[in-house]
Amino acid sequence: EPTHEPTHEPTHEPTPQPTPQPTPQPTSQPTPQPTPRPTTLPTPQPTPQPTTEPTPQPTSELTPRPTQRPTVDTCGNSRRTVVYFNVHAGDAPLELLLTLSLGETVIFSKANFRRNRLRTIRRCLNLERWCYKASLTDSGENGFTGAENFFSVVVGGVEVERVSGSTLGSGVDFFIGNSCVAATSAPTISPPTSAPTPSPTPAPIISCPGSRSQVEVTVDTAGSAGDFKFVLSRDGQTRMERTNFNRARTFSWCLNLRRCFTARLENEGCNGFQGEGFFAAVINGSEVGRFTGNWGCDVEINLGDCPA
């Protein structure tokens, strides 16, 4: 038999597997990021204020409030002047009465004032020709209850008369007009003497209307003790009473002397005047009666057509 050698399988060397190399990591370093520098903030500057000045206000100051009423004459008649009568009543306003008179004619009267309130009455008056009398009477005879309360008269923007506080007493008269004699003026005082007292210098004549006459009565107690009261009567009827004679007071009227008027002064102490006090009456600039010294409880001066 033929000898057959066994068929040998080809010897195959196993294909060597390549030794896996580790995947090389990239040797490059990561791209360095630039180190951020701290952002330098600009030093804050203060917000500049506008250099322009604010819009200037008008340089003219506000017109100050006048202390009196306006001086502009708003009366339609150029011969008339604006006159204001101011009454600032106190705690007893119902005791007050304001009247404005021309001679014996009452032009207006006002009452019912309000407590601690100012009331102003405006009138257009012919001060060039007439003499007006403004009277404020107090039935309580104690004047205003506080120094802040007053009665004043303003002529053409100027305060010409004022009384305040308790000095009002039972009342006061203010005379307004170019032809008036000042209410506070008194004839020259003469010392007491047994000889006839010379008459004072005649006062300017008030332009009284019609047939009326200017009559003035002056009471100057010169500090005499006792309470005094002045009374003006017509035909026996009392027309006016006044007290509070701590200073010389002169009353002036335009009277129809065809009637009988009597000026009487009473003294509670019944001892008249001490010192240089006097009580006198003047008609149209001529003195018609005067009393000085100790005249007792009361004296009278007749004015006009009175029975003997």
UniProtKB/TrEMBL annotation:
Residues 1-75 are annotated as: Disordered. This is Uncharacterized protein. Residues 1-12 have a biased composition (Basic and acidic residues). Residues 65-75 have a biased composition (Polar residues). The lineage of its organism: Eukaryota, Sar, Stramenopiles, Ochrophyta, Bacillariophyta. It comes from the Eukaryota. Residues 13-57 have a biased composition (Pro residues).
